[in-house]
Every structure is written in C-alpha cells, then in structure tokens.
Amino acid sequence: xxxxxxxxxxxxxxxxxxxxxxxxxxxxxxxxxxxxxxxxxxxxxxxxxxxxxxxxxxxxxxxxxxxxxxxxxxxxxxxxxxxxxxxxxxxxxxxxxxxxxxxxxxxxxxxxxxxxxxxxxxxxxxxxxxxxxxxxxxxxxx
Length: 142
What we know:
Subunit structure: The accessory proteins ExbB and ExbD seem to form a complex with TonB.
Order of helices and strands: HHEEEHEHE
CATH architecture of the domain at 62-131: 2-Layer Sandwich
Keywords: Cell inner membrane, Cell membrane, Membrane, Protein transport, Transmembrane, Transmembrane helix, Transport
Subcellular location: Cell inner membrane; Cell membrane
CATH topology of the domain at 62-131: Nucleotidyltransferase, domain 5
Shape: elongated
Pfam family, one: ExbD
Strand order of the largest sheet: 3-2-1-4-5
Mean pLDDT: 79
Oligomer: single chain
Radius of gyration: 32 Å
Distance between the termini: 74 Å
Number of strands: 5
Helix content: 25-40%
Protein name: Biopolymer transporter ExbD
C-alpha cells in the first residue's frame, strides 16, 4: 500500500482553509441585513405638508376597444373598421377629455393589428390607456 502524501509531510502545516466559520459569519450578516433593511425606511422622519387635493372624479368615460382573434375591431361593442378607430375615439375625447380606453386584445391576434390600434389610440389623444390581461387562474380579464 502506498503511503498518503499527507502522512509524509506531517511536519508541514495544511494548506487548506476551513470555510465553515466564514459561511457562518456571512449567513449571520445576511440575516442582520434582512432584518435591518425594512427598518431603515422608517429611520428618516419627515413632516409632510398638507395639501387640499381636488376630488378625484371617478365618472370619467371609459371606452372599451376590443380586437378579436380574427382582427375585427370593436369600440364599445360596435364593429369599427381599423382606420376609423382614431376618429371614433377622437369624438369621445372631444366630448370628455378625461376619456380613458381599456384595450382588450385576443392573445392569438398578430401584434401588427394590435399595434395599429394602439397607434390610433395615441393619435386620438386619449389620456389614459389600460391593456386588459387575463387572470392566470380563472382566465377572466381585469
């Protein structure tokens, strides 16, 4: 049996570093930072000024624009030719400048049609646009 080379060099110090204490220290520091970080956001006290804000009007008109899987576009449930979307939305904005749009686009529809509708919404100067997505579990739009 061949003797181990470590046995032959018994008088020399080992060249290995024991990393267990280093890992312990790093984990303790990590825990300290995880506990201390959320507390730091409350460390600076600021006395914020009070301001009277205008009441938020929740009665602004919301127009629903739908693009189905065949590329057909509907504005508030009425079929609309894609080139006419801008004019229809511009009329809504002229009546109420706070008009917002909720865009419902079928996920199987190519992006080109949806991008054209988004561009029409922008050209109509709609202030607020929401893009509806489906809830992952139930598949309902929100």
